[in-house]
Amino acid sequence: MECPDMLPPSSVRGMTLLDRERFKKIVQIPKLDVTEVSLKSIIPHIKRMLLKIQRHKSIELGSDGTKKLLLHPTSITCFGDLPEEVRNLGLNGSHLKWEEFELKYENWSTEDILKAVLPADQESCTSYSRIGHIIHVNLKTHLLPYKQLIGEVFRDKISGIRCVINKIQTIDNTFRNFSLELLSGEEDYQVEVKENGTNFKFDFSQVYWNPRLATEHERIIKMHDKGDVLYDVFAGVGPFSIPVAKRKAFVMANDLNPSSFKWLQYNMKKNKVTNFMQTINKDGRDFILEDVKCDLIKRWNSCGSKLYKIHLTMNLPAMAVEFLDTFCGLMLGYAGPIDPLPLVHVYCFAKGDEPAIIAKGLVEENLGYKLGTNLQGVNFVRNVAPNKDMFRVSFFLTRDILCMKKNGSKRGITPEFGAEFSCKKSCNTMK
Hints:
Elements: E1 25-33, H1 39-46, E2 59-61, E3 67-70, H2 84-87, E4 96-103, H3 110-117, E5 129-131, E6 134-137, H4 147-157, E7 163-167, E8 180-185, E9 190-195, E10 198-203, H5 214-221, E11 229-232, H6 241-246, E12 250-254, H7 258-270, E13 277-280, H8 284-302, E14 310-314, E15 343-351, H9 355-367, E16 375-385, E17 388-396, H10 399-403
Parallel strand pairs: 6-7, 11-12, 11-14, 12-13, 14-15
Antiparallel strand pairs: 1-3, 1-4, 2-3, 5-6, 7-8, 9-10, 15-17, 16-17
């Protein structure tokens, strides 16, 4: 509603405890009496001028048989503003009258209410994530005095919401969950969601789930065909693994978080892909050194001329690059075939004026090699915060990387990858 008269009353600015009665407001609305006109003949010509507000119809049908169309005051100031096709239906100026209309809390959107209440000169709170019946917001400090009101407004306005929560710390712990604060509703954090045609169930307070990554999940899923292989190092509850398994690719999915592992197994069974998945609950580094290594050797030596692809996802953007040194010399001493080469998709955060170059540099620093022809792409995923972006760097693991001889903390590199580059040994292995 761009017309000031149609916005919530200015007196609600600064309200911290929701008082729905204070939103009542009397306005003058143009109403067109169309009792003697067929609605089918008039609606197509006047549809864009109708007053569209929540919880109220644009057509009033009186008990005496009258029919009135509610028009938006910014569209109509006089009878002459009506389209010629409408004026030619036997109507005249007497059919258009301004009448009192009471606007209530129920008639405004979430955005209208919050913009009217919250400080006008600071960032508002209209951005949120929906996870099943939960609304998840990240409130800035200046919005904390309004947190209870914000929670109630979201729960009032969005159908099916039973719980509104605020994240009160960053995701920097071992299990990728965060402390949360209940703003409104019931403490019911067990949700069911559907993403990329797959049903998931989990406890949102104990695992990591971000609905804004659905498109990125889909990109990776579509890279897989029947018979391919996916090693999912930080699988969570399975947004990569389970849809890929539904495509009849073989998946080894790992996560250190016991709650994530529990729901990963549950969702695997729920989606009936147990024949295509193996689930593991250990540190990502150990998963690569033990399970991925053994499975790769087995496949390379037993699949013959079969054509298939191998992908390896590392979606832990805060620290996934620190696990890349695990691939350096992973196959040291192995002289058998290495075909197909595994394609790694590692996610990271990048801050700076050239974030794509920074993301590539982070991968090279931790891997210990300059990426050359084996680099498949540095892809922007999403903006996380001002001057902070999430990227996916995709590259093939080569024999030079996998079978090179380790020499202390330094790794040499072959000429095709460029000048020597030190490999950073991670001291932040998750325990």
